[in-house]
């Protein structure tokens, strides 16, 4: 295996850092210009005046680039600690050999990326985002930053200025992948920022299930994860994007994700948010084409001193479009869970329908849970059904289950598992098993 000298920047961010990142990556001038313009926007855009307080986040106390690891070409070459983290996620060695591809981003660089040779012959593109910029410049430029512009919000601007790593996937017309594509992101350096950029293009009639896992070891000081994801679902195509996030409690997880769906296309988000100090994430779907569909399944766990602020945005533009939002949050001790959603059915989206359910479960007297839905219909032939419910673990349920021989711990776990079942059903087996373990530990604390 060839070695690569590690490159770690000093803390802080200025124009020089932005230029240096672009220089290291040997980018074209248009990308450097894009980064510099993004940096100017980042400085001018203020933190949101709603939701969690982000003023404690010190941008000058963060490193914005670090290679952190050597390149690996085979599974045997992956560092032992990375393998151990994969195992904790429930991904077996046998499954590694069967999966269509796994890419790992360790801090700012992708250290492992392997594709079956058959993929190349089928026209599939599965590259790191940096490599896709160099190998497919026209395709890349056509889609990059088209759904999430650098003016979208402060953290999308920051990502646009310092982005590094991430995944670029193009699925050609008519190709349906039967096995999921998995990527894994890990922050391993104290005060490290991670700013991957993911771009997925599913051409007409194609199908893909993309899974990302995210973790970070525990450090006492704050780290930042601020990714941008853009997904293009063409006519009759289908994309499922599953996230299993298990950050440590020092991570600010501030992510912007968006998809656009053409005629008869389907976009599914499955989003499991566990850990982090603060999470703000609201995957959006633009149902542009007639008869397009969007689904959002979400689970958020807020433990002691954690803020989980999540939800979804559905914008109906095409006729006969349908969307489903199903959000589940669980909070305990002084953890705060918030659902923040926006569903808009526009004037021309005739005969469209949206079903929204956002339920919160609180496990003790100190926990908090809120719901802030915003729904809007601009025509008379469409409907939005919305249901919101916040409840405590029922003492009657606990008493009944304990009378059947279960301990209080087992009974609580059973109730929580039933509460999140609509979400776990949308996960692959290995992730559902891992989530069940996490829920058991969450209830036990």
What does this structure look like?
The protein is α/β, with parallel strands linked by helices and 445 residues long. It folds into two domains: 15-281, no CATH class; 394-445, no CATH class. Helix content is 25%, strand content 36%. The chain is built from eleven helices and 23 strands. The model is unreliable at 1-5, 69-73, 94-102 and 108-114 (pLDDT under 50).
What would you say about this model in short?
The chain is α/β, with parallel strands linked by helices and 445 residues long. The chain has helices at 15-24, 29-44, 80-88, 93-98, 117-122, 129-135, 137-143, 154-162, 395-403, 408-424, 429-444, and strands at 101-106, 109-115, 125-128, 167-171, 181-186, 193-194, 197-202, 207-215, 223-225, 228-233, 238-247, 251-261, 266-275, 278-281, 284-287, 293-302, 307-310, 313-316, 322-331, 336-345, 353-362, 368-377, 383-392.
